[in-house]
Amino acid sequence: MDNCQITKLSNGLTVVSEYIPYVQSFSLGFWIKVGSRNETPVTNGISHFIEHMLFKGTKNRSAKKIADEIESLGGYLNAFTTKEYTCYYGRGLTKNLGNTFVVLADMLQNSLFRESDIKKEAKVIIDELKDIEDSPEELIFDKLESFLFNGNPLAMPIIGTKENIERFRQADFKKYFEEHYASNEIFIVASGNVEHEELLKLTEEHCIKKSGSKVNTPSKVIPVKADEYFVYKEIQQSHFIIASPAVGLTHNDRKKINLISHILGEGSSSKLFQELREKNGIAYQVNTFLNSFEDVSTFGVYFSTDNGNWEKARDLIFREFEKLRNKRISDKDLQRAKEYLKGNYLMSLESLTNRMQRLANSMIYFNRLKPIEESIREIDEITSDDILKVSNKLLEKENFSTVILSSKNLLIHSAA
Fold this sequence. Notes:
Radius of gyration: 23 Å
Number of helices: 15
Order of helices and strands: EEEHHEEHHHHHEHEEHHEEHHHHHE
Low-confidence stretches: none
Helix content: 40-55%
CATH class of the largest domain: Alpha Beta
Strand order of the largest sheet: 1-2-6-3-5-4
Shape: globular
CATH topology of the largest domain: Cytochrome Bc1 Complex, Chain A, domain 1
Mean pLDDT: 94
Number of domains: 2
Largest sheet: 6 strands, mixed
Strand content: 15-25%
């Protein structure tokens, strides 16, 4: 990766760049290794709330000026919070890198957290919470993780609870911000027509005062016993997840599980799509998923169907699981899944923001820049024996919990 460079400053802050000379723009992100996994029940939702508050004004800029300074130059700012990190990022033309950097640096160092803004933004976030609750496709995944990771911070929703959102005050934000936004947990990452030396100079001019040392270490996940859960929701269609914990992002088997996920339920030629929708016509949407964290993932199948069809759909899914557990996948099916996975991965890299995010994730989880060629090679090296071995452990029926989101309780017992 000759076009990529890493510099770790004396205060612990890490600067990463990928130089792409044939484009005229950049994607720049300020990444902080803190998310809802670092929270407690009392602080749940504060990482996401802080993400909102950093756009509400600083000592130097009003909320409107933050937006105007970037949008008036044809760029944009955005942010997102996950369970393990928070990212503030901007896109723009190369000549406007400095403007975008200065605004983001100002937001991360000089935000005011005014009480009046907190009260207004709490209403916005509660509306966002209601949007999630009104979306069965989103809500069921929040519920899944609350069940599978019960007793661990991973069980808590990123957005938090209504009670916490309404209760947070300026002192809460300042305390949490100072404790967790330490320089050794911050990565400044850029991809595009960006010179590393220019990025370093901007960092030293505008971020060097940011200091502090903190290690946001996640607590160990203890898997819960597989079970069945019902969540009541007044909806027409019922939504279902069959899922199990799996290995995390840094485990050697993670790419093999990702490939198994693609074999089973990614794309209209996948086994589950063909079996449930094309052959039996019992599900409009069905897909597998692999939601990964540093040390654990959730692997499973999501589908929606009529109440009368759900048990048949579940049985068909487990039948496909058993096929992978008992028989080596054909060379044709394995190659199809590999090409699908590699194609998605490589096409995603046509986006500068995706490239920037890949760099950041590589640093956060592997403490190095993983070459694209290495990721492709790892996929190519997976064999049918690997798939059979991992499937035998991963796809054992007894490992899977079931979550049903419906207006009718389809299970013998339920969890609130």
